[in-house]
Every structure is written in C-alpha cells, then in structure tokens.
C-alpha cells in the first residue's frame, strides 16, 4: 500500500476504549469500515469488542501522566487518525464520593480530581493529538461532555464539581476549535452528550431515569457517530446531544 492510499484510509483513536461507550465506539467504527482503530486504556489491553478486534491496536495511556499521551501520539504519527474520540470521564470517584448536591459539600481534593479527569485530561490529549491532523483533510476531535455542563440549561444547580468541570471542558473545546480552524479549514472540534447510558458511571443514578431514556452503549455510540457525520466545520466548537441538537452554552 503506497502512502497516498494509506492516507485515504479512515483511522480513529479512542481514548477510554475499555469503557462501555469506548468499546462500543470501536465496534461501530469497525463496522463503518475504519481500517485502523487505536484503542487506548490504562491497562493497554484489548477492549471488550466482538466485531473490531482485527483492526484494533491497543495502547496504554494515563490522563495523569503526560508522557503516556506523548507516547500515544508518537505511536500514531506514521499513520495518524482522522478521528479522535475522548471517551473518558468521572462522575463518582473511586472512593465512592459522588457529585455534591450542596455547596456545603464541596471538597477541594474531590473537585481537583474531577477536574483532572474531565477537563485537564482531555485538554492534554488535545495538546498531543491535534498536531497529528492533516491540514488539508477532514478531521474530527470529539470529547464526551454532558448537558449539565451547560450554563444556559442549568435550572437545578448542584453537582458542582461535575457541572463546572464539563463547563470548563466546553470552553476549552471552543478555544481549540477557534485555534485549529485558522490552519485546518476542514477540522471539527465537538463535545458530545451521550444521554444516560447503562455504564458504571451512571449506575448509581439510574433509578431516576425515565423509561426509555437509559441507553445501551451501542445505541449511544452509534447515535453520536451519526451526529458527527452530520457536522460541518461551521459547527466546530459546539456541544451536541445524541440527537444532534446543539446544547446551549
């Protein structure tokens, strides 16, 4: 395969491929004909996929260790992705502490951990992955965000660290879109709200989900990929839900 043919092959990088949504992205992209899917996780093992194993190339990364993100970019440099999806995130921390329902419950260490995963981590991935994009080709950088990160749509309050971390993420995505758009006219940077998905992240809160609104990872991943296909560079910097509706800032 010559370099021109190789450059035309669709390739993706999934950060968080060991999670339910990340693995579903891998399967869906393999079904869509992607020839190489870089599948990243903290363990570096093969994601739990059935369809895309033959095209998945596992790699290891840790959001808290920038050298692992630099190493991931180096791994992909010779055959860079056209699509990067960051499918990481934290709502409840490993110690079981969940989102604060009152400002009286705000804890500095808890807040710092949430921001490290939801805001700083994706920003560091962008730092190392956006330079891999070809300037004259369509390319997409997408990050799982959340409707609760919208300031204009916030009518309930609470969940302070999580809401604030996603709001900050959305601002960074707008910044990245503006900067990348000056040199990459066909680039798209987008936040994606997956809905409430039946994964470990949402498990403690599924009791309040209305009937029919708890999605499988497969449904949500396919819906979000369909949203990305429908976006244009003019949409870059915004956040969209799984139905393709723009979420207020």
Write up this protein.
This protein is of the alpha/beta class and 249 residues long. Helix content is 35%, strand content 16%. It is built from 6 helices and 9 strands, in the order αβαββαβαβαβββαβ. It has helices at residues 3-8, 20-31, 66-76, 108-129, 160-181, 217-229, and strands spanning 11-15, 36-41, 56-60, 83-86, 139-144, 187-193, 196-197, 214-215, 239-241. It has a 7-stranded parallel beta sheet, with helices on both faces. A two-stranded parallel sheet has the order 7-8. α2 crosses α6 (217-229). The radius of gyration is 17 Å and the shape is globular. The relative contact order is 0.14.
Helix and strand layout, with pairings?
Layout: H1 3-8, E1 11-15, H2 20-31, E2 36-41, E3 56-60, H3 66-76, E4 83-86, H4 108-129, E5 139-144, H5 160-181, E6 187-193, E7 196-197, E8 214-215, H6 217-229, E9 239-241
Parallel strand pairs: 1-2, 1-4, 2-3, 4-5, 5-6, 6-9, 7-8
């Amino acid at each position: 395969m010559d370099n021109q043919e190789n450059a035309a092959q669709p390739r993706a990088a999934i950060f968080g491929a060991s999670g339910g949504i990340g693995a579903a992205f891998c399967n869906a992209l393999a079904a869509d004909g992607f020839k190489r899917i870089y599948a990243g996780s903290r363990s570096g093992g093969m994601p739990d996929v059935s369809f895309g194993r033959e095209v998945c190339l596992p790699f290891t990364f840790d959001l808290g260790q920038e050298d692992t993100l630099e190493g991931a970019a180096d791994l992909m440099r010779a055959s860079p992705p056209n699509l990067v999806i960051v499918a990481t995130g934290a709502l409840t921390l490993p110690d079981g502490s969940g989102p604060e329902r009152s400002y009286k419950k705000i804890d500095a260490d808890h807040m710092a951990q949430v921001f490290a995963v939801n805001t700083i981590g994706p920003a560091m991935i962008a730092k190392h992955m956006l330079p891999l994009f070809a300037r004259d080709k369509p390319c997409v950088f997408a990050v799982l965000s959340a409707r609760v990160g919208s300031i204009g749509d916030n009518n309930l309050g609470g969940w302070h660290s999580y809401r604030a971390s996603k709001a900050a993420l959305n601002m960074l995505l707008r910044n990245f879109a503006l900067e990348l758009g000056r040199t990459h006219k066909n680039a798209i940077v987008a936040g994606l709200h997956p809905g409430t998905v039946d994964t470990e992240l949402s498990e403690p809160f599924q009791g309040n989900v209305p009937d029919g609104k708890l999605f499988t990872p497969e449904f949500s991943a396919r819906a979000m990929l369909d949203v990305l296909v429908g976006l244009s560079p003019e949409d870059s910097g915004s956040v969209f839900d799984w139905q393709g509706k723009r979420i207020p800032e």
